[in-house]
């Protein structure tokens, strides 16, 4: 990527670069997994709903996974009339459901009340239930779908109390985040096998959710065997819906140093971006990764432009202190970045570029009118 920036002469800053070559590699890897296991793959567009990314994923995969009406609308615009769109959300609105039932091919209801009320409205979609297997694998409750008092999915222990035979065609669950092994999936399947066996003749599909970084799991044998067993035992379509695994390593945030000074004995460099352009840096309180990390003797704090005291990309070591105007590039920011980015303090969003391995092409550039439109009232 550094060579790309030099050769292409990128001057915009801050800029967000989508690495199409990295996305294509992830899609090829998933295509191989699909071929080997027999699973079907959906792109979870909440990770990065940028139109070219959604269209590219739709060309190579089996559909798109969405969580809201706006996502469903955009997904349908991107993939056309015949593409598969799977929806699950705790926030389904009564007034939106008629449109959702037309946009989506599969809908997994999040609660008994949601299912009983909205499913009665009819539609051509395949109905499913999102279940909560009551198995926690995450230490941070903010990201644990199976946390105590969870809002996500029907308690698996309540399934026996629901009269869903013949009215539900699929089950959906999601239990992990950025997981790099399949042990949670295997444990989850052990627990829900009873529900599957009881309704096997009525069910047509099973969605294993997202959260697994397939490209970072070297031995995929356990997953392949699991999918083959599910398909063989229950004659189901088995879906997965990766998001971060597809785009996580495909995003770069390019910034430039605009100020430098000492603060309590440490050098602080202000860059022309902000963690508000990738809020998970602040949410997780961890340093963003540099494209070209150094292990020199010069400690430097890289800080964003906003007035937020915690607007810090992290503390790094350089061979020498970067100069004002020097470019700093952060990597692996493709997922949950632009979708969460904001204009706090009135700082513009990064200009968005695509890198196809040969050319750097500008996709989108916001300006003052975009900021003005967001906050002006009455024209």
UniProtKB/TrEMBL annotation:
Assembly information from the UniProt record: Homodimer.
GO cellular component labels: cytoplasm
Name listed for the protein in its UniProt record: Carboxynorspermidine/carboxyspermidine decarboxylase
PANTHER family reported in the protein's UniProt record: CARBOXYNORSPERMIDINE_CARBOXYSPERMIDINE DECARBOXYLASE, DIAMINOPIMELATE DECARBOXYLASE
Cofactor(s), names only, from the UniProt record: pyridoxal 5'-phosphate
Limits of the Orn/DAP/Arg decarboxylase 2 C-terminal domain: 178-334
EC number: 4.1.1.96
Enzyme class: lyase
Active site per UniProt: 307 (proton donor)
InterPro entries: Ala_racemase/Decarboxylase_C, De-COase2_C, Nsp_de-COase, Orn/DAP/Arg_de-COase, PLP-binding_barrel
Organism: Methylomarinum roseum
Residues annotated with N6-(pyridoxal phosphate)lysine modification: 46
Reactions the enzyme catalyzes: carboxyspermidine + H(+) = spermidine + CO2; carboxynorspermidine + H(+) = norspermidine + CO2
One Gene Ontology biological process: lysine biosynthetic process via diaminopimelate
Assigned protein family: Belongs to the Orn/Lys/Arg decarboxylase class-II family. NspC subfamily.
Gene3D superfamilies registered for this protein in UniProt: Alanine racemase, Lyase, Ornithine Decarboxylase, Chain A, domain 1
Ranges that cross the membrane: none
Single GO term (MF): diaminopimelate decarboxylase activity
